[in-house]
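**User:**
If convenient, please work through this fold.
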Amino acid sequence: MNTSFDSFQKRRLQSSYVSVVVSIALVLFMIGVLGLVLLKSTKVANHFKEKVVMTLFLKDDVSKKQLDKFKTAIQKEAYTKNLAYISKAEAAKSYKRDLGEDFLKFLGDNPLKNGIDIYLNATYVTPEKMLELEKKYKKNSFVAEVNYDKPLVKLLTKNIKRMSFWLLVLSGFFGLVAIILINSSIRLSIYSKRFNIKTMQMVGATKRFIRKPFIWQSIKLGLLGAFIAFLGLSIVIYYVDSYIPTLELIKDYVSLCYVTGGVLFIAFFITWISTFFATQRFLNLQTNDLYY
């Protein structure tokens, strides 16, 4: 009889562990996917921002020595990611290719100006900061005109802010769901052992001594759930990288490290804190209250 009961208890305990691990794994997998989306969305947004060009059209009387000094000064600025010098002859050839005819034959002279294309770092591609740069370079004695796509910059900034807002809302929502689900799974697991907790307390065990094995067990279950979540994430990353190689998910070691660290931290912290408060609750209950 006792053997049969012990076997039943063991199976029920194993079933409880499995449900906790599965719940944790699913939640951590969801958090990992969302983390990747957040990190890659920032990189994608920055990629498009850094394609925006600010062109400085130079005056015709700028000498080569002055030009080289000016280019060097621009290259050293914090907002400069890259720059390219385009002479008026190169610009004329580009226009010729685009138009399909030589417009210089009609004009007799090249009306274009030498220019410097400045590719800015993503943080500087906002309407306000680019307007400041425009004003700055308009005052420069070498610059005849400053040109960039203002409507595009406004549209990019607006859409990126909107996307970031909704991603943060989703992150907060799924984070709350993750805490609730993992906490509920662990509380149910602890609930099934409430009589063991109270028995240990009645024979003189301290609260810390009672909590320790439960916390350690929950952390191990959390790490096991994290390992399963990593397997799922690896499959997702592999297939996404196969179909959309431009995202370079597998090669983005920094993002992968952030996601891995975040998932492990959440697995450890939530299981620890949930187990702590769940055991504390039953330690503070009176014996008669354990039946309800």
Notes: The first strand starts at residue 53 and ends at 58. DSSP finds nine helices and four strands in the chain. The two ends are 27 Å apart (CA to CA).
